[in-house]
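User: Sorry, folds how?
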Amino acid sequence: MQTELTDRKRFLIFTNILVSTIASSMLSTAMTTALPPISQDLSISVSTGQWLTSGYSLAMGIIMPLTAFLIRRLPTKRLYLGGIFTFIAGLIISLLSNSFPVMMTGRVFQACGNGILMAIAQVVILSIYPEEKKGTIMGWYGLASGAAPVIAPTLAGVLVDLINWRAIFGLALAVMLISFLIACLVFEDVLETENKKFDFISFLLSVFAFGGVTLGVGNITTYGIANPGTLLPLCLGIITSVIFSWRQFSIQEPFLDLAILKNPSYGLSVIGSMLLYFIMMGSSVIMPLYVQSVMGRSATVSGLVTLPGSLAMAIVSPFAGKIFDKLGMKALFVTGSAFLIISNLGMFFITLHTPIYIAAIYNVIRCIAIGCLMMPLITWGTFHVDISLVADASALLVSLRTIAGAIGSAVFVGIMTLVAQRSSGTYGDKALLHGLNIAFLCMTAGAVILFGIAVFFVKGKKKDATWKR
């Protein structure tokens, strides 16, 4: 399909994808900084408000398996515009909301729109560009999809302090409206479609599987591990995950082709992406809590602490793509996971007397690690499957890493809260900081596992044999 497009048309499509990606990706983490004022205005607790972030990830995790079917079934342009329209609807609902249920409804619409846009963007990019340019192009895409969520807390903090939290949705709405109009003019049907039958049973199983696991883990923070509110959805999710997997391997036309996990390199890319998101989303939620709740600074300062890291990621991501094209994944994997260890271990040693710019420096190191790993892992994973299975490979990888991110944010906030509560008698006013330190120590352990995978399991060459079903 890529031979039918001129370089100019490719550039216009790619640019439009970047614009919509920036706006949609920013809303995935913007709530972390805006959560305190939103919780106050809507009269909800912080733990309830946390669902504006983790619930968003949950909805994305549920919609992502469906995108593989949609990409194969619907014309590219129609699906892309539908994703933008869904996201715009969610922005309007949240912008006008005056209660938590309405706000949460808007966030679900945004998550569904973002899930569609993320999946189709990656498949389009990987399909319209030649193999020798995929790493570089995905690096630039990673700048948008990776840096935007990190920039979002900075921008959100400024908007909250200068105007109010509704301005966050207003700004994103303006950008997405422009993106929608441009897409109507420049986007093309660049992917092949097929008359594939919709397997409703598999879709329903995927909803309960991904939703149950994430909901159960998320409820640990609120109810504890032994509460029925945690155990019931968790058990339901695990059981339906097994049934869903069995069904995909049993039917002739799977809803989501899990057989691609048999490829070792793709499987490693999935595991690496899940661990990265598990750690990344946990730290993205805890960092604003450190600045605002522990250090007592404003939302603007909280955002500014992450700004240098955003710039570092913007610089690293395109270069990481070029390095991938030339050297392969191993060098990036080792470097990124090592930097992730350093940044999280550094935050473990943070005290109340540590200058706040030290936290900003550790965040820069963390963002360099993310820039080295995020998009190269996706590119590397999809390199090892046939072009006809790229939609399944991308949807599965993004689904699992999104779920891992939602679990990470819930788990690490839960660790921080639990440790703070149990150590309040010993640490007093420093109990919350102690909980934060322990949470980052647990993230360090996850980063060590990631480093071990990079050293012992990732091969030096860029590509093995392409896997076909």
